[in-house]
Amino acid sequence: MEDQHPSANNTRDTECKISITEGEGEGEDHHQYFDGRRIHRVPHLMRFNKEDYYAPKMVSFGPHYHGLPELRMAEELKRKVLGDFVPNGCKESFYIRINEVIDQIRNCYIGVSRDAYNDRTLAEMILLDASFAIYLMKISAGDFKKYYHFCQHLGRALLKFAFQDLCLLDNQIPLWVIKLFTNLIYGNEEKGPMLISEFLSYYALQSDLPISITGEDKKQPLHLVAALHQLLVKLDSEGEKPSSYCLPNINFKFKCRWWPWKKENPYELWLHDPQPRPVTDLKAKGIHFKRSSYDLKNIKFKSNKFYGELQLPVWHVDAPSNQLHAQLIAYEALKESNVGMPIICYVNFLKSLIVKSEDVKELREKKILINGFDNDEQVVEVIKGINTWGLDDTTNIDDVRVCIEKHCSSKAKTWIAELINTYFRSPWTFTALVGANLLLCLTFLQTYYTMNLPK
């Protein structure tokens, strides 16, 4: 990674990589950027009395919160950051290039008229916001020079708010603008996607894993929240949607329709009359827990002869992730997003699994829940407090729920689980069981010989 250590002689970010003159880009196809997708705001019902979740605290990106007095301090820093990226002699050239695609940028937003922002004003806003987004991404990627620069101007405490504001659904600029601006600065088309990928991996997964931000349809996400959603609900490594192991390949619901003598469809019975079972109850029924992946759709259930195994994706629980989940839920609630409700589905499923601190402890010990709070009780309260607004789509976990209910309804499997849980959960209970059986055997032998030995 370049620029990771401060240096007094390092002027890479202040060099003008390309010289652009007016009319130079006239032959290019600038309509390639806007493909009809638009940046929609959080639904009004969700914003009502919940503005704290969706309004920026420190910095605005895009026109929706631009110009608020409480965000003025960040606006001053934006100009310094743009000056570090683009020397004064090159700024006009950058404005010209952005102005060539200003209609494409304007079309990405709803209600951003020329009366509110003329082309020059909107271009200046987007340049400042794109440069500041790149600035924050480079800090997250380990650029200590820019980290110290931020702390010097705004203080270290505000950095976490800047990262959170960058990932608010109501506070977005198109990703292609960030990549275009990165290309103008560095003259490298790979720099923008690489920087965005590193930021997403750090912010959502807290790791340095290389990730792709291209969807199945080869389209890039429109903005950062869409990219984060795509990252958290991507397909598994084999390119197939995760499915349950306990049902046959033929659809179980379809098979049941061919049993006319059955008065009840067992699939329908289990599916529409689900029993909320927390983690501790499932464990008592012989179900073990295992982490699957970071993909929130990757929920599987394996049914073995004497026990079951529920595989769950990793879930980070802390203050920043709680706000991020609120943005992703709002994104899924948009009728225009067309991404389904996998995160809403998983949150609702998690709420049924976690009702007390013992449930959190079990999932935490299995490395499924990553707890960023001081104790497990806080995690219970946070998960209970995640609002899914009454929305749900259980398509992704229908088979899993059926398999769990089928396992819990098996007398043999649950009896063996209860036996193991009662007598084999610790060396002391096992020792007591062996001692009791030994005593019983000795008593039987004593009785037998007393009755059969000759007198």
In terms of topology, how is this protein built?
Blueprint: H1 44-47, H2 51-54, H3 72-85, H4 88-100, H5 102-107, H6 119-140, H7 144-154, H8 159-166, H9 175-186, H10 191-205, H11 224-232, H12 252-256, H13 266-272, H14 279-284, E1 287-291, E2 300-303, E3 308-312, E4 315-317, H15 319-333, H16 342-353, H17 357-365, E5 369-371, H18 376-385, H19 398-408, H20 411-423, H21 427-452
Parallel strand pairs: 1-3, 4-5
Antiparallel strand pairs: 2-3
Query: N-to-C SSE series?
Result: HHHHHHHHHHHHHHEEEEHHHEHHHH
Stretches where pLDDT falls below 50 for ≥5 residues? Answer: 1-30, 235-245, 247-264
Our Rg estimate from Cα atoms comes to 29 Å
Count of folded domains = 3
Q: What share of residues are in beta strands?
A: under 5%
The average pLDDT score comes to: 79
